[in-house]
Amino acid sequence: MVHTVAVQRALETTVAPPLLGDVLFEKMLTSRSGFVFTAHEYDEIFQLVKHPDGKIHLAVPEMLDWLSRLDPAAEEPDPAYPFTLVAGQRRMHNANQIFRTPAWRKTDPDGALRIHPDDIAALGGHDGGWMAVATRTGRIVCRVESDPSMRRGLVALPHGYGQSYPDGAGGRIIDGPRLNLITAHDDRDPIAATPYHKNVAVHLAPVVGPEAEAAEAASARVRAVAAA
Questions:
Q1: In this structure, are 35 and 125 located in the same domain?
Q2: Parent domain of 191
Q3: Which of 7, 150, 224, 226 is most deeply packed, by most CB within 10 A?
Q4: Is residue 65 part of a domain?
């Protein structure tokens, strides 16, 4: 055992290896949850640094290689998708994909698209109306909410919406925007492979006519279920 003293200290025992391993295993079996299995003193901490020079190496070779290959020209915005969407904005009544009744949301029942009022006007939309948010991956229709605090060209949607919920009459409602329909698994960080949820290029267009009427009716159903 490499850190014998630290394990003995954590388990409050003087049992030596190899029997110390049995003590550790017994502690694992009898603990209802996690437990402390090593307790290092301050002057022992640097024993954990395994580099020959005894230093902590902060450089990540893969990241440095990626940075050296970045091409600013390749990062120019696509004119077909001129807006940047923050997909997953934290708001007062949203949560990570936890199944909740719509009544739990005291505000923002539609998970509205927040956008600068000048951008709404330039697009020909209106506050409280409906807007199509499209990417190469998909398209969703969202309620519009004017927000002067947003920068021009930047829009935001909350996470934790878009789930199917029983309407109490044998049917189901869709509670807000389904963000995963417009994010792409291949538009992602090259190292961590995490999709760019906070930096999604989107195309916006006002929704009118039958599609807007359908969105309004769907929103009314969500509100009715919440009220009930």
A1: no
A2: 78-227
A3: 7
A4: no
